[in-house]
Structures are given as structure tokens and as C-alpha cells.
Amino acid sequence: MAVTHSIRIFVVVTLFCFSSAYFGTEPKRNDHCFCQLKGSIDECGCSVDTVDHFNNKKIYPRLKSLLQKDYFRFYKVNLKRECPFWADDSRCAMRYCHVEPCLEEDIPPGLKGRHLRELPFEEDMSVKYTESVQAEDCEVDHDDDLGYLNTTISAAAYEEFARWKEHDDALDNFCDINSDDDDAQYVDLSLNPERYTGYKGKSAHRIWNSIYKENCFRPKNSFNSYIASSKLNGMCLEKRVFYRVISGLHASINIHLCSNYLLSEKSTLSFDSVTGQWGPNLEEFLLRFDPRKTEGEGPQWLRNLYFLYLLELRALVKAAPYLEREEYYTGNDQEDEDVRQAVKDILRVVRSFPEHFNESVMFTGGSQARKLKEEFRQHFRNISHIMDCVGCEKCKLWGKLQVHGLGTALKILFSGKFDGVDPTGADLSHMAKSQFQLHRSEIVALLNAFGRLSTSIYEIERFRGMMR
Fold this sequence. Notes:
Elements: H1 2-23, H2 26-29, H3 48-66, H4 70-73, E1 74-77, H5 125-128, H6 131-137, E2 142-143, E3 147-148, H7 155-170, E4 185-188, H8 202-215, H9 229-232, H10 237-259, E5 261-267, E6 274-279, H11 282-289, H12 298-325, H13 333-351, H14 367-386, H15 393-414, H16 440-467
Antiparallel strand pairs: 1-4, 2-3, 5-6
């Protein structure tokens, strides 16, 4: 047995040396993207390996199942809004850029219209204060001596109330998606997956250049679109966090495109005569993240993805008591119950993570901190508007969805409405739901955006395996 074992070792060592000699520096190449992707994550205490194991073993499988449910599959979005910053002359003409909205009969019945369970009040006030309803409640609504008292509320007044509410919401919101626009339509995300469509070139570069150069906080004498990691330490914590968030989102989207890359097109006998084949493209991944092709920054961009993952993970923890109370109503009683239980299971796992991002150390220090916080919010709102300038419909859909989800996470962390909510899941029955209201579109975007980050980290492991 000892002789056999020695022979096996000799064979393995010989093959390794032979492969190194034959391929030159190739074994070392395998470390280029990932050798720096180790150790603790910037601004956080936990390590990359800890997040990898936690996500790939516990979070990713659960999210993958949950996000296939109707409540999270159908996202209402307006893809027809014009670019507010420049003339949009770069519409993607490729077949894979197109998004097919849902037909009316495809939408779950519980998502059509505005369900009473989603209202922040106990009942629909526009019904309560109509003249006919009041007439039923009161035998007389005036006193002959005092004169007539009209207690109805006019339609114009309701419009004014809506404007007040929109103004109040805008003070807390970090993005402007307007899923309730007249032109907004439901889209089935499962039928319009995020993947490489061929959209690239000046139009795509202009989007990210505008985001980085015009909306990210920047150190002095920084002229590239991205900020070199060596210069980040010269910025305050809040500005570093903003950049890492945007850089992490950019890295995540790039990973999605590399893992679902258009590898080939082939003819078929169907009416749609050309169909695509998608899959992982290792060379494209290396082009975007190999330090030798990115002036050494690629691994840092991947680290920023992990940072964003921890930030959104913390938002889920902070909003967990609220999310556990949500009904996730679609009209399908059995599936709705399954979703409620699945969400509770994911939140239980999320709470178990040992080291979360600490948002309490940000925006402290009086009026200057409040001013910086408002700048932070306005910069991110601008980025949400830039999403309307994306020339590819499918890219716009997933860009708006992920920015919406990230904006919801920032709202949870920094608006103040969730401060004092016990993340351990204390009884909230004494608190009015309107005190920390999230709309359905925000919940859908929040979970789907976190699902995209989770998928990115899972795909990194697959690319790591391909490089080995």
C-alpha cells in the first residue's frame, strides 16, 4: 500500500510539473482575478470566504426558489419614459433587447388594481367619505340652528392629499422609479431574464460615465470613470460607501452579462427563425476583472460587490419585522402561504449571519452630516433617472429593478423610518403599518436586487472553478 501511495504522489507531481512547463505561466494566471479577493471586506469585519459559504450554501438556493413565485416574478415598471439628460438616439435594434410586457390575463388577480390590504389605512378613505355612505351612517348631518355642515371630501382635495403624500415620500425615497405611471406595465421577469443582449459601445459607456463622473463623490484630481482604490481612503466614510455601492452594482451587472453571454445564434424551423444560446464566457469575465486588463482594479471591483451584498443583507435584517408581517397577496391562497413561510425562513437565515454592515456609524455629526445625507440621497435619485437613458429595453428593465431595490435598501437603512424597529422580530402589532410603509414594488425590487447580488457571488465561484 505504501508503494502504491508513493507512485500516486509521483504521478500527481509529475503531471503538475508537466502542465506548468507546457502552459508556461498559465497556473499563475488562475490566481490573477482571485488572489486579491481574500481576507476582510472593506468597511466591514467579515471575510470574503465567510460570505461565499453563507451565500452559496444558505441564501442562494432559497432565493432562487422564492423569486420564481408569482409575487416576485411580476414587476410593474415604466420603460417608456424619455431620457431627461440627453437626446436618446441609441435604441438597441437587436431582437434580444426587446421586453415583452404581460397580457392582462397573465397577471395574477391579486396584483390587478390596488388591493385594500396594501393600503396604509384601515379602510379606503375615498369610499368612507362619499355622500351616499355618510347618508347611511347618519340620520341627519346638519343642525337647523347651526346651519348645514358638509363633511364630504372632494375629488380635488383627494388629489391634493395625494400630492402631499408624494412630497412626504420623496423626502425618504432614494430613487424615482414611478411604477404607478400610466405607462407602467407588468413584466414577467422569468420570461425576460437578465443577460448579454449585444448592447454595448458609446451608449452603454455614456450611462456608466455619467453615473461615475457626475453622480459619485470624487477625490481631487480623479479623472477616470472609476476611482482608483488607492485614492478612496482620502474620502470620508459616507462618500466611500456611495462609491463602493455603485461599483459593486456595476460589478454585479457585469458578472450577469458574463455568465449569460450570447455564445451563438442558430437557425430553427419555428416562426422565430433565429434563437440564441447563452452561457458563461470566461474570456469576457477576464476582460472585465483581470487586474492586468483593468489597471489592477478588477479584484477591488469584485470586493465592492461583496460590500454591496452585506449592505443589502443588513437592510433585510432591519426590515425583517415588517417583511414578516406582509401578506404577499396574489390571489393564490396556497402559493401565498408558501411565500410567507419561505420569506420567514430566509429572514431567519439572514439574521443568523454573524457580522452585518453597521449603518449607525454613518451620517453622524449634526448639520453637516444632514447636508451630506441629503447629497447622498439626491445623487442616488439622479442615478435612478439615468436608468431611463439606457438604450436597451431589457438592460433598462434590470437596471431600473436593481437600482429600485438598492434605493429601497438605502431607504430602510437611512431614512429613519425603520429606526427603533427591533430586528430580532419583536411584536409589532402595536405599531401602525403606515409608520414604516413599503409598497409592493419596493418589496419585489428589494428581494430581486438582493437575488441578483446573490447570483453574482454564486457565479464567481463557477468562474473560479472554470479557471482552475
